[in-house]
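Let us work through a complete example step by step.
Step 1: write down the sequence.
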Amino acid sequence: MRGAGHVGRVRRPARRPHRTDRPDRTGPHRAREADPDLIDPAELIAATSVEQLAATAEQYFATLDDVEQLLTKPFKEAGEAAELLVTFGQVLRGLQPATGMTVLDFGAGTCWTSRWLTQLGCRVIASDISPSALELGRHLYERAPVLGERPEPEFLVFDGHRIDLPDASVDRILSYDALHHVPNPDDVIAEFARVLRPGGIAAFSEPGATHSLQPQSQYEMRHFGVLENDVIIEDVWQRAQDRGFTEIRLCLLDSSPQWVDLPTFQDVRAGREDPSVFPEPARAAIGDRRMFTLRRAGTETPDSRIADGLTAALSLDDVTVERAGDGVVVSGTCRAVNTGTRHWLPSDSPHGPVFLAPASFSPTGPSATGSRTPVGGSRFPAEETAGCRLVGRLFFGFGLRWGMFPMLSGSSSTS
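Step 2: predict the structure and record it as tokens.
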């Protein structure tokens, strides 16, 4: 039900990927030949305008009887919850959000995914073609508010033709079970490329190539006019390349993993498993679910909002030891150099700031910690330095040593 209008398409034949095999589109076609009563999503798209599908989506959400149950998603029932939590977790890994990032939740519906992204500290723009769905999303935020100080979410009605955001204005896009409702995916992918910043990521969780044949899909299309299209990943990737995406990554995780006894588990670990146990079930499972990411052309500078890759080289210079009463005063200059893969954000940054602080150690652990020293930071990894003059008092007889460590924060709070 969610779509975008026409945006000029640029073909780049030289960039077409080499395919060792073609996607199988014959399954749905043969099924409809065998059963002419099956609804073809292509015919639904041809017979219905974007505006009509938008009106259908609005009516769907505006006339819901059991709003309370809908707002419990993903915890409406145990079986669905297990699958939604697994797929959301893996899509979240692919999305790679960080505190303070601007994330567009496209096709947000009642905003359960938006709320979780807000809890992670993202600035969320929840977008849907149905104003009533977004109103339910506002209601969800009010009834189940996120904890702590987090950015306020923004609610954006999608008109079915254009995402009302400036070019290169978002860091991430989440499309969780939304793309298969879109009647014009070419244009939606083009809009994603337009609003994403260079190097930004769009992450998706979608059904597979025979989704339209499933009984529930047929029911939704027949009784509600909701588009339940098939997702051909090769077609998605071709569209994405034409629009400026340079990388696709697909998740091989089985969203309904096998549960086995201990001997079978040991056989799998040792490589002695029966193929019917593993990997055949996993291969079958990914036939019905597509979890994937698209990366926009350009470079995204990684920074200290994420702790992975934060390292520093420490050195002590000009160290002197002087007697002072019953102890000694050790003076020196400690220098920390960024040797990691992430840009250090300065100490006044609202998210992921980096500080330095001295500490003295005894055999039982740290005995004192000095004040933090701000790090100005530059935009170039491995070229950031901060020097400070440190003075610590060490007493005889306890084996004390001078210490200095970088306090690298990967969260919104300072360390």
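Step 3: interpret the result. The chain is about 30% helix and 25% strand.
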